[in-house]
Amino acid sequence: MGAGPGDPELLTRKAVARLRAADLVLYDALVDVRVLDFARRAQRFFVGKRAGRHAISQTGIEALMIRAARKGRRVVRLKGGDPFVFGRGGEEALALRAAGVPFDVVPGVTSAVAAPALAGIPVTHRGLASAFLVVSGHDEAAFASAIGQLQPNRVTVVVLMGVGRAASLAALLVERGWARGTPAAMVFAASTPRQQAWYGRLGDLSSDTLAAVVAGGDDPGTLIIGDVVTIAARIGVSDAGASDTEEAPAAMRNEERYVGR
Ligand code: SAH
Questions:
Q1: Mutate to test the pocket of ligand 1, among 160, 188, 223 (most ligand atoms within 8 A of CB)
Q2: pLDDT tens digit sequence for 215-256
Q3: Which domains does the chain have, with CATH numbers?
């Protein structure tokens, strides 16, 4: 089941119903605590990653689900966003299938779309981007191969798990012919009270200022690259990207660009 990006109001009605009926909830690190409040009568287990270490292995999680289900317990396996978007939901569904445990998949609002949306950025926009790529920034080689086939500056690139590597990912894009002036944004803790967004240019992503800002917290962040980022300013969510100059204006490089909600 997908828990969405954080705000409990972004849960589906099906997710809420299932949480209320659950006996056991196995949840990941990015699941907002407010979402767990719906599962009042359930036993709740954290099975995610904390400080880089897994509380329990992937096979351990699968075994736990299977064992509980075989005892007749109603199990919810809760993931941030959508379970099938970098959530290992497919692997777990395959394990359940192999074990003969009946289950269904409850999709969630993925941060790949919700984080940009909440920062005023449509991932597609007529005339600006007719497609978007959702890619992990975790592995640079995989990232390079995913962007390798793209025509530079034609598609919106949404990077999950990439904040810590933003500088090298940006460098890879520039190497592949993307303009340094391409609008870019980072949205942190989308849909939570801590939501913050930074708006700038691809070329700024390597700047020390940004590195300092990003190092500030361990909130999850989504990186968006493409002309669609300029829409945020036009619809009034931010004043970002209002300039058409190739080089980012000075103001874009200081912390004023890091705007709270
Ligand atoms: N299944 C999840 C993605 C898991 S990968 C989904 O569909 O949303 C984890 C990455 O998701 C994080 O590194 C970050 O890039 C992004 N992410 C998750 N929650 C977020 C949030 N509230 N705000 C911004 N990005 C978020």
A1: 160
A2: 557 899 999 999 999 999 998 887 554 444 333 333 333 333
A3: 8-99 (3.40.1010.10), 111-253 (3.30.950.10)
